[in-house]
Each structure stands twice: as structure tokens, then as C-alpha cells.
Amino acid sequence: MFPTDEAMAPGDLARAAEERGFDSLWFPEHTHIPASRRSPWPGGSELPREYSRTYDPFVALSMAAAVTTTIKLGTGVCLMVERDPIVTAKAVASLDHLSGGRVQFGVGGGWNLEEMENHGTDPARRWRVLRERVEAMKEIWMHDEASYDGEFVKFDRIWSWPKPIQKPHPPIVMGGDSPKTLERIVKYADQWMPILGRNPEPIGERIKRLQDLAAAAGRGPIPVGIFAAPANPKVIAELASQGVTTCLLALPPAPAETVLKVLDSHTALLATL
User: Fold this and answer.
1) Would you state the pLDDT for residue 44?
2) What is the 3-state secondary structure (H, E, C) of 19-57?
3) Dihedral sign, Cα of residue 215, residue 102, residue 140, residue 180
4) Euclidean distance between the first and final Cα of the chain, in Å?
5) What is the pLDDT of residue 200?
6) What is the model's pLDDT at position 272?
7) Residue-number span of the structural domain to which 50 is assigned
8) Which of 30, 76, 155, 195 is at a distance of 20 to 30 A from 110, taking alpha carbons?
9) 3: in domain
10) Is residue 197 part of a domain?
11) What's the domain count of the chain?
12) Which residues have C-beta within 8 Å of that of residue 42, sequence separation ≥ 6?
């Protein structure tokens, strides 16, 4: 769900989702939306209102963590092309430590070109920026004394605690479905989370190619989740048969009475799977 100032509070939603047996809760991110609206929204012609009203995902997930004990806490996705890697490494590690190791760190390159330009990122270089920032964060999480020497990220011998509880670090979940996405996942991510329907190639064929690339690189099978999956048991069963391990179901960014009705409908779906 997009956590906004007009929607059900993040803590209340997290508690309700955990009580109903859901495995994880995911919040997306937009620091702002440029008023020019130059970049077209991939989901259609009219950009939904919630895109410009989201809470910071780590603040919202901290509220969720404080009132729950088991549900996993995901960024779906964190736009690392718009974030400082040292500061974000601290935020992720702090949330993972305080939540008892429940963070799922979803990342992506983003679609709004002027939004990333406002943060000083050249859209043509955003994937290289993303890779370096993720790699640098891993160094901070995994080493007591970290350093990184890249084209866009450079720091020499730094100390930063706390370290994440999850070892070697919280799972890096890569969004996106471009031609090079699978290669990026094998190089520096742990899981894949595409949006169903954005690519005409069958998801099963892409999952097979991902696992072949992983095996060639000496890696084991890579988990695959579907972002905003249809709340349809037949579709979910078919996705599972093709290698999908997680389906993220969408909730409206609305007041509690509306959200809880949809959440209860999703809960009924759980019982059929």
C-alpha cells in the first residue's frame, strides 16, 4: 500500500495484516513528484494522487515495526538513485536491528526522470548509480571498517553501526523488468520482484532464464515475487507452478474502513491457497 497522510496509518495496517497471517508488508517510495509531469506514468495516463503524498518508507515501516513482532517489512521499492548510500545503509540497518531482523530491502531505478534529476542523478546513468550504491551499502553492512571506490560512490575506511541482524545483510529485492534486469539481479541482488504484465514474454520463461544465469554464476535458485499480483487463486496457483514464490497483493491508499474490507478479502484468498 502507498502509505499516505490520507490512508490507514502504517502501524494500524501492519498490526491488522499480521493478525490475519500475512507474511510481509511493503511500502513504495517517491520523495516528491515534479509538477511538470514530463515523465509519463507507466501505469496509465493519469498519475494517481497517492504518488505525491507518500510517507518516507523507513519512517512508515518503523511505525509498523513498533507494533508487530513477526511480519516482514519491505520497501517496494526504495529509489536508491535518489538516496545517499551511507545514510540509507544506516536507516536499513537500524530498522533491521530494531525490528528483530525483518527487513526486505526492495530497490529499483525508478521511472520519473525529472524526479531523479532533482536529486542530481543523470537518468542515463541511473543503473550504474544504483549498482554502486547497493554495493557500497553491502560493504557497510558486512564489514566493521568499510570502504568503496567507484565512479559515483567513494569513501575510505568508515565505521557505521548498528549492523543488520540478518546476515550477511537484509535480502536485496530488485524491481523492474528491463532487458538487463536479470543480469543485474545475478550480479548484486538476492531476489526479483517484477510487475506482472509489463513484459509480454511469459513469466515462467523469464524465471527459467534468471535461474540459468544464476547457475552459470555459481549461485543457487533466486526467489521471485510478483508486485501487485492479481487477487485470483487460479492466477496465483499458475504463478506458483512457474516458479513464483511470493505474491504481493495491492491495497488501496484509503481510510481504514475501506482498506480493511480489501484486506479481509485477501485473507479469504489466503485460505484457498
Assistant:
1) 85
2) HCCCCEEEECCCCCCCCCCCCCCCCCCCCCHHHHCECCH
3) positive
4) 22
5) 84
6) 87
7) 10-270
8) 155
9) no
10) yes
11) 1
12) 111, 198
Angle at 163 (CA atoms; ends 62, 84), nearest 5 degrees: 70
Residue 271 binned pLDDT confidence (cut-offs 50, 70, 90): confident
Domain membership of residue 4 (yes or no) is: no
DSSP 252: -
* Inside any domain, residue 147: yes
Kindly report the number of other CB atoms within 10 A of residue 85's CB atom: 24
Assigned C-alpha cell, 25: 508488508
CA atoms within 13 A on the CB side of 25: 32
Q: What is the mean pLDDT of residues 133-140?
A: 98
pLDDT at 162 over 90: yes
Share of the chain above pLDDT 70, in %: 100
Strand order in the sheet with 72-78: 24-27, 72-78, 103-107, 172-175, 191-193
DSSP bridge partners of 78? 107
Helix or strand (DSSP H, E) at 204: helix 203-216
Q: Is 268 helix (H, G, I), strand (E, B) or coil?
A: helix
Q: Measure the CA–CA gap between 247 and 224, rounded to whole angstroms.
A: 9
Grid cell 502507498 — which residue?
A: 2
**What is the number of residues in the chain?**
273
Round to whole Å and give the CA distance between 15 and 32: 27
Burial 165-188 (b: 16+ CB within 10 A, else e): bbeebbebbbbbbeeebbebbbee
CATH classification of the domain holding 214: 3.20.20.30
SS3 140: helix
Residue range 185-233, pLDDT digits in tens:
999 999 999 998 888 889 999 999 999 999 999 999 999 999 999 999 9
CB crowding 106-140: b at 16 or more within 10 Å, else e: bbbbbebbebbbeeebebeebbebbbbbbbbbbbb
